[in-house]
Amino acid sequence: MKTITRKKSFEDVNKMLEGFNKIYIFGCGTCATMCGTGGNPEVSEMKKKLQNIGKVITDSLVIPTACDDLTKDMVKQHLKEIKESDAILVMACAFGVQTIASLITKPVFPALDTLFIGREEGIGYFAEICMQCGECVLDKTAGICPVTRCAKSLLNGPCGGSVNGKCEVDPNIDCAWQLIYDRLKDLGQLKRLEEIIAIKDWSKSRDGGPRSINREDLGL
Amino acid sequence: MKSESKLERILEKGIFAVTSECGPPKGANYEVIHKKGEFLKGYVDAVNVTDCQTSIVRMSSIASCAILVQMGIEAIMQMVTRDRKRIAIQSDIFGAYALGIKNILCLTGDHQKFGNHPTSKGVFDLDSIQLIQTVKLLRDEGRVLGGDKIDGIPKMFIGAAENPFADPFEFRAIRLAKKVAAGANFIQTQCIYDLTKFERWMEMVRQMGLHEKVFILAGVTPLKSFGMAKYMKNQVSGIDIPDDVMKRMKDAPKDKKAEEGINICVESIQRIRDIEGVHGIHLMAIEWEETVPTIIERAGLLPRPEI
User: What pTM did the predictor assign?
Assistant: First the structure.
């Protein structure tokens, strides 16, 4: 499981950096490296591209895991070059961008779009499995998530657009409800489908503002 | 009676019902609804108005239905969950009822990708089955989803759609049962061209006893041209047109294609009337409303009852 990212177009990056000459580039050694979006090769490529259009690269650094606490120390160690820069370009997920932005009082820009939490199902093929809705329904749906995998997040699917096991939105996408149906059939539990799944509590998802929990039982 | 709907009264009397459909304009043109309403008035028992069908922005179903009601036409408001969350849904149902709309068809809606705003956010706070439950809760318990009592009950006749031809086929009747359990009073089906498959579906429906719990209106759509037949077969998800129907449309002379489409439609209606458990037809003459009177007359469904 990792945070899946995609490179923004160089044109978009260029636009963000308009008016800034000296640029410091951060990459990330974890998810962005595995996605091929913010590891050493991508950071070097970005460096060259920016130099080609006349930018000065003060330095670059691929942090082991941009979102964790050690990032603070890494930033401290490179403070001299960072201070000399006009702007910081971060080739990490939005976690990394926000972590770095909280540590540096310089303009910080994202070079990537953060897409989803997913897994690599084949080389270079990343798929979304869970969207962290906060109220798991997998007990009712044979372990296959309709909230994430159905284009309409139907809890009582499938809709009329399910054809030959594929979704109406894209013939390359499996219909989640076909998968659920097939699995329940194999398990001899088709009866489960007769139950109407209740209206969802979206306040447990991102609709309640940024989520946090305080596990006091884990404290000292 | 569960509602104040004329359609409910007709179906309860055991009369073979006829509903039709009216697509609103892609703008604020009142005349479009008025003209289509004039074509249909007196020939059908109630008229559906689509709710931004195929995710293309059109005049709202509520407003269009209200215009039909002003013309003395019984309206069936289609409502999709794609564009509204539960707050707007319940609010719009109150408003619709206050404007004289007595029927609602509860749908999830086509995905926004297919329309003219593919980058919009799909809402899908509820699905169609949960929408049925919501209308039933408002009507039968006088409460909103949040639990508060409401001031003025929307006594609506609750409808749902079902596509007998979508996959998985064996699950379609189970899903219909869920809609009935949720509170659907009538069902309008997707357009039927493959009557043999529809008969198989109805057999499953009868085995489950659903035809005694819900009124089923079979959907039919006349084909205007061979091009339309090809489009419906290949581009519209969940519609299948058998080869013999395609052949009839292909072989008909150029100036007789529309006539052949009407012939096929009338024959289908006649065959559908003989299927046990079907309580009426839903005639969707897409952007061809003027043909409805001819089809209804030729199918022997006139005059419509005055109830």
Answer: 0.93
